[in-house]
Amino acid sequence: MRIFRLINGGFISNFAFLDDKVFILMVDPIMALRLYHEGKQVPLGPEVNVNLDDLLSRDYTYGGLRFTKPYDPPEVWGSGIVYEAARARYSEEDVAMIRGRTIYELVYDAERPEIFFKGTANRCVGHGEPIAIRSDSEWTLPEPELGVVIDSRGHILAYTISDDVSARDLEAQNPLYLPQSKIYNGSCAIGPFLVTPDEVGDPYNLDITMRIIRGNEVIFEGRISTSKMRRRIEDQIKYLIRNNDVPDGTLLSTGTAIVPGRDKGLRHGDVVEIAITKLGTQRTPVIKLNP
Ligand code: DO4
Ligand code: MG
Hints:
This protein is an alpha+beta fold. It has helices at about 30-35, 50-55, 85-90, 105-110, 170-175, 180, 195-200, 235-240; strands at about 1-10, 10-20, 20-25, 45-50, 65-70, 75-80, 95-100, 100, 115-120, 125, 130-135, 140, 145-150, 155-165, 165, 190, 195, 205-215, 215-225, 250-255, 270-275, 280-290. It has a 7-stranded mixed sheet. Strands 1, 2, 3, 4, 5 and 17 form a 6-stranded antiparallel sheet that branches. The chain has a 5-stranded mixed sheet with strand order 11-22-21-18-19, with no helix packed on it. The radius of gyration is 18 Å and the shape is globular. The protein starts with a strand and ends with a strand.
């Protein structure tokens, strides 16, 4: 099952895509995922006739019906330095060192993962909606990641595309600035779909690709397979929920391996396109926030 939401004039409706048909979803997406996970009937309304490709091509400037985030995650968390590529790229900068090694090299090898708070639903946008550059950042990067929706006991209910947009200059300046680098309006994009595990299959066999488009030009392109993840998703979830109650529907963004350089920082007007096997393609325009 795939869940998505459409917005029209501020009014949001929930939909389920099942057996090649689209139905109105009669319960909220988190409840639907819980029921599906428990093998119970998901309350569906009538089948509707929608052209998904057409809807996916519309962005937030469109006046009528368009995509929005597939649900409102009560909490969003992120994992850091989960891939060798992230360890290497993050450590290239002039960053904090402990006992002669960068903090990123240390956490990559450590048993305890880096898990950080990433925000709440109001910081998240959906497909076609703008991700943001902080007004005080000159180097902000998108981070294309496999997003995992879990229940309060840590069971995986669904997967989605998540973009852990980060003000890289702030976190490189001082690790204590990490929350400001990671949490601000428009710092997280999710969707277009929530896809249940039975449709995704092996989460360690998915291709993640990202393109940054400026005008008519692709200024960056990157690709990675989730098979390159050093830390298992279950291990990340174990640390996230240890002595830390999370609500049903919590989203964990499982870390990036695609890290463009300093010369590829986002600019107002760019478009970020992230595709993950089985999860679809997320396109988000980029805006720079006013001070
Ligand atoms: O502390 C750095 C954050 C790393 C991160 O967000 C990632 O590896 O995806
Ligand atoms: Mg990240």
